[in-house]
Amino acid sequence: xxxxxxxxxxxxxxxxxxxxxxxxxxxxxxxxxxxxxxxxxxxxxxxxxxxxxxxxxxxxxxxxxxxxxxxxxxxxxxxxxxxxxxxxxxxxxxxxxxxxxxxxxxxxxxxxxxxxxxxxxxxxxxxxxxxxxxxxxxxxxxxxxxxxxxxxxxxxxxxxxxxxxxxxxxxxxxxxxxxxxxxxxxxxxxxxxxxxxxxxxxxxxxxxxxxxxxxxxxxxxxxxxxxxxxxxxxxxxxxxxxxxxxxxxxxxxxxxxxxxxxxxxxxxxxxxxxxxxxxxxxxxxxxxxxxxxxxxxxxxxxxxxxxxxxxxxxxxxxxxxxxxxxxxxxxxxxxxxxxxxxxxxxxxxxxxxxxxxxxxxxxxxxxxxxxxxxxxxxxxxxxxxxxxxxxxxxxxxxxxxxxxxxxxxxxxxxxxxxxxxxxxxxxxxxxxxxxxxxxxxxxxxxxxxxx
Length: 451
What we know:
37% helix, disordered N terminus, alpha/beta, globular
């Protein structure tokens, strides 16, 4: 790939080495003092209102194209550039933007690092990425270093070290670094958050969540797309996909805003499901029948918060089962549980009997869903993808802090890496870093997002 600077032969391995070296000294110092040092906290300032949000989009496959369509439905958005390693995807995205009535965006497709050229050459408000997981941090770091806000699909980063780099870069450059966790915008999740904020469930003491989704066809590459998924279960053993479940629970518990993750323990079952499925589905001569997977079929991670609350996180993507994120919140006055959605409130519900959520939606459904949710059936994941993009653009145009910030993304994403460390050490307790460096004690609670 040709870059504008004189180092035209820069390759992927060199870029990764440079990124690691650049942050090494700061990271070492941060590790030594993060638990005590509150003066080091330098939260990115609120950006002034932005009339036109100029976006460069990196990674326009399935999820990227879905977000692109959402953004083209929103006022005040200009898609200026699109980037992907597959030229055909770039052309398709350019056609989509042009068909919406906007000028044809610049296309970038000259190799894995062409996003760097997009970041440095284009006049952008933000860079939005929906690449494979391992590229999220690299794209965001390049965006922040070039003076742009950074927005990424989940997770924020794969490693703890990259979580720290993103926190520090966001603070250094005074730009937002936002992980787009769509499940925080689900109808049930937002209704439960509203119930918690109004005290319906009383003081919150426990949560249960996870990602339980039979995607064996994807991991074995029987189904097309997301071929990069496979290497994660081949080489890693832990709770590999945490944020969909943890995000809504963390918001209900005011994590980073009144409470903080403290430590975790994690254990995994044997890794048998994918090998059994390969023997069942693939012919004898297929080499995929001989793959050995590192990731246990079922991982259970337990988190303790500084206030003493507990959270159970379950990860299972390698066995036959219906989809669920569990989504359980237990308070002193009641409990809500998902899949199916049901609620019990002491003194209101019939004794020892679950109630359907229908009546609670009527009373506690947030205005965001009440006003916009009826028209979202054609958008991704039941409409919550659209709502997260809507809220991002609304906050930027009004000069308000976005609902999610780099501390949320780092706290929720690092659980995967730390769970691997605990599993490898026979479920040893692993400390969860405080990315806010003590500021969680005074940061205000997140309000229920508005329409």
